[in-house]
Amino acid sequence: MGLNIEVHGLKLAYDAQPVLEDTNFSVERGDLVALLGANGAGKSTLLRCISRILKPNAGHIMLDGTELKHFDSKEAARKMAVVPQETTADFDFTVEDIVMMGRFPYLNRFQKEDQSDREIVQRSMEMTGVAHLARRSITALSGGEKQRVIMARAVCQQPEALLLDEPTANLDIGYQSMLLELAARLNREQEVTVIAAIHDINLAVHHFNRFILLSGGRVMSAGRAEEVITPDNIQKSYGVPATTYRHPLHGVLQVSVVREKTRVEGHTKRPVVHVIGGGEEALPVLELLIGRGCRLSVGPVSAQDSGCRFAHFHSLPVVIVPPFTSMNGVHKEEHLELMRKSDLVVVPPIPFGEGNLPIFEEVEAVLKEGKPVYLIDLAGVEKRDYSGHAPQLLKNLVQRGAVVLEKLEDLPGVVDRHGGSDNG
Question: What is the pLDDT of residues 211-222, one digit of tens each?
């Protein structure tokens, strides 16, 4: 099972406008590959060439060493199944009828499907969560339901390779995960080679282990996530600055687009904000603030923390401490200095452990000096407290004048009220 796919020198142009330019890559048997790239990079066009919907102007596509053009339509359909980006349904077929079409490559002309075919159809509908729709007309389904039906037809085809063109475009987050997990399951259990055009990089890294990044119809990079998904490659291919970091819960590489600093009307100078701590919980705060043109400082964080990488990417002042240790005297002085230079201090909804509790001695000190301090999502602190002391500690800060913000969305109003200062 599985299929080796090689693409050599592929070229294709629409109305003399090049879409694929000397595209080269190979996908090994049993690979689980995500095609990445900005709109217009050539992802869908490439898949349509591999699936024979489009004929390239030049180049070769090889399946297990044999050129694609040498396969007849039924042979190719037994090799590869396709889930297109959009599905039109002009005829009043039932869902079961549509899925049964996946068996046509195995039937001779005028041959009727047998019990074995019907069992495969049933299993395919159950795997994709559409068995309860079997008697429904395809024309009566939502876009997301239609997409799952087409996925069921592809599974029913029992292919050696599965080609997915933006398969999650019309699905909610639950079905997105289900569909991509199904592709991964077929890959894992049956060694089906999977190639999927995915627009969401952070979704792709959760479900795929190999990546091909296209730009201008060419392969810019191919390999593992760490090799392909880099800030430099994202900048070149998508045209936006970005930073990459490891998700603190599951360690998967993630991409965060860095928005350009903007000047909010009515403020020519934005406030200086010190953001306590780092990690996944602090990143949305940092991104929101820098997106509004605020001048930021960060810390304390470890050198491996995503907040530290964010600070380095934007050349922000940051207090760096060794991982899993408390601050020493030098760190405390650096931290106090950054908070005193700021217009306000923000505490994101970070986890609390014994190691970071001493941070709030400095927070309390600047609060006593009159520095505005804002705590985000105090109601959820018990779920984030691994020390047993954080709720009382934060309660003490509130009693001394710290202001509680129920949610992140309340922060822009605070920033606007503070304006700017000449600190620092």
Answer: 999 998 999 999
Q: Which residues of 263-302 are buried (b: 16+ CB within 10 A; e: fewer)?
A: eeeeeeebbbbbbbbbbbbbbebbbbbbebbbbbbbbbbb
- Are 5-239 and 258-418 in the same CATH fold? yes
- C-alpha 254, offset from chain centre: 7
- Contact present, 360 and 397 (Cβ < 8 Å): yes
Between CA 80 and CA 18 the distance in angstroms is 26
Q: What is the pLDDT of residue 120?
A: 96
Q: Which residues of the chain, if any, have pLDDT below 50?
A: 261-268, 422, 424
Give pLDDT, residue 57: 93
Among 353, 362, 360, residue whose Cα is nearest residue 393: 360
Contact 149, 130 (CB under 8 A): yes
Query: What backbone torsions phi and psi does residue 32 show, to the nearest 5 degrees?
Result: -120, 100
CA distances from 256 to 91, 200, 247, 394, 421 (A): 43, 11, 11, 30, 29
Residue pair 187/66 in contact by the 8 Å Cβ criterion: no
In CATH, the number for domain 5-239 is: 3.40.50.300
Domain boundaries, the chain: 5-239, 258-418
Q: Positive or negative CA dihedral for 353, 334, 319, 289?
A: positive
Q: Residue 12: beta bridge partners?
A: 20
Architecture of domain 258-418: 3-Layer(aba) Sandwich (3.40)
In angstroms, rounded to a whole number, what is the distance separating the alpha carbons of residues 59 and 171? 35
Quickly list H helices, 342-389. 359-368, 381-384
What are phi and psi for residue 191, nearest 5 degrees? 60, 30
Q: For residue 82, what are the β-bridge partners?
A: 163
